[in-house]
Write a structure and sequence with these properties.
The chain is an alpha+beta fold and 302 residues long. The chain has helices at residues 2-20, 30-33, 135-138, 254-264, 272-278, 288-298, and strands spanning 37-46, 50-56, 66-72, 77-81, 90-93, 100-106, 110-113, 126-134, 148-151, 157-160, 165-169, 175-186, 189-193, 200-206, 214-222, 228-237. This is Dockerin type I repeat-containing protein.
Length: 302
């Protein structure tokens, strides 16, 4: 009986959201909305408990010392080096019902990553779309040209450009070099990317409502004079690359459903990314059905 009452209440809330939406206004301005974004014609379908691992933008100069490791709570490893995915994507099949910790591996430094955050992949099956984005529009981690900047131990700063830089050895024979890399995760898609000279990268994103797109990144440097750094960023969100996030603020709320309703009514304009995020059922058009699905997601009915 309690479950029935809960469901009836949730459905009623959807109705309230629909009625109240005509009184609400958009939460962000046109300038805040705009993010440089383009959908490519490439898609990939995977099954539940499967990972799709690929690379984009790699050249002969791209640092190849990275990979992804998915470790169970029982410390069983499922890992792959990104250099093995350059010519063709790879697939990892994971056991059902397991919880995993995600890591980024480097050949010289072992691996780093999450130690207390767990992920499950039992419901990650579906379609993934490759998109091209201006990285700096989606995360402060990246500069305009796609590089990442870190402070060294001597107070100076260095830009990391996804290449391996060999500085030979210092006066006591220690190897000096710099390396950097990053990969995006969106549901069951893992994309190791190298941006172009203008700061654009291609990654795969989930078409499943509410699934965020996050980045793991790594930067290491040791110079001959001893200056050094060792940085890893875990789970930085690419804000706006979430199906259902119509206002592009990183969250799904009643505002997103409201904007879809206003677009359908012809009183709101959408850019490319908003159109992409608003087509929740992925049927090629935006309608009140998409707004309803967002409302159901908010109250836990999806």
């Amino acid at each position: 009986m309690k479950s029935i009452i809960k469901k009836i209440t949730a459905i009623a809330m959807c109705g309230v959201l629909t009625v109240g939406s005509v009184l609400m206004t958009g939460a962000v301005s046109e300038d805040e909305n705009h993010k440089d974004f383009e959908v490519t014609s490439t898609t990939q379908k995977i099954s539940n408990n499967q990972l799709f691992v690929t690379t984009t933008g790699y050249t002969e100069n791209t640092d190849k010392n990275f990979g992804a490791k998915f470790q169970t709570t029982e410390e069983k490893d499922y890992d792959i080096w990104f250099k093995d995915c350059i010519n063709a994507p790879r697939f990892l099949n994971l056991p059902k019902g397991e919880k995993f910790v995600k890591y980024m591996m480097t050949q010289g430094h072992g691996y780093f990553g999450n130690v207390q955050t767990f992920y499950q992949f039992d419901k990650t099956g579906g379609e993934y779309v490759k998109v091209k984005i201006k990285l700096s529009d989606f995360s402060r981690l990246f500069n305009e040209n796609g590089t990442m900047t870190s402070e060294l131990s001597d107070g100076s700063y260095k830009d990391f450009d996804f290449t391996y830089e060999d500085f030979e050895t210092d006066s006591i024979g220690v190897n000096c070099y710099a390396e950097s890399g990053a990969y995006a995760t969106s549901g069951g898609a893992v994309t190791s990317f190298a941006p172009d000279k203008d700061g654009y990268a291609e990654i795969y994103v989930s078409r499943q409502l509410g699934v965020d797109t996050k980045v793991m990144s790594y930067r290491y440097c040791r110079l001959k004079d001893g200056a050094h750094c060792d940085y890893g960023i875990i789970g930085d969100t690419l804000v706006g690359l979430t199906c259902g996030d119509t206002d592009l603020n990183g969250y799904i709320s009643v505002t997103d459903a409201t904007l879809v309703q206003k677009y359908v009514a012809g009183i709101e304009d959408f850019d490319k990314l908003q159109l992409f995020n608003s087509d929740v059922n992925d049927d090629g058009e935006i309608s009140v059905v998409d707004a309803t699905l967002i409302q159901k997601y908010i109250v836990g009915l999806s």
